Amino acid sequence: MIKNLQNTVLDETDKALLKAMQTDGRLSNVELARKINLSPPATLARLRRLEKDGYIRNYTAVVDREKAGYDLLCFIHISLQMHQLEQVENFRRLVREMPEVLECHHITGEYDYLLKVALRNRKDLERFAVDRLTPIPGVARIHTSLVFTEVKSTTALPLE
What we know:
It is built from 5 helices and 6 strands, in the order ββαααβαββαβ. The protein is of the alpha+beta class. It folds into 2 domains: about 1-50, Arc Repressor Mutant, subunit A, CATH 1.10.10.10; about 70-145, Lrp/AsnC effector binding domain/regulation of amino acid metabolism (RAM) domain (Alpha-Beta Plaits), CATH 3.30.70.
């Protein structure tokens, strides 16, 4: 059984519904009901409850990064000079405004943040690092790793 912060319990039908939606979020309610062996009205009620409880945050299309012209995928580690609240909040705000940044994680270890960034080419990477990241007040160190091959990329959680 899976519980969220509100102590809502997911039963096997809820998990089956979420698994099906993670595989294909465009399923009609009738198709979804058929897949999880439930009536369409009961399926819709469960789906609405899962949305309301925050298990389903949104619906989106996953765009092929390379076909869209973003050939370069990078992971960028960032260290901040000081960890004053104002500096940290400013860094986070600026990163949230950068469309190139797909993900930003506050992490433990040698660096403070890990960014997943999609760019068109190495010139874009240079502009991003020099013109966008370096000028942020408090950025002490930037370490960039380029992705050769994306071996696995998924948004689906292993709901067991």
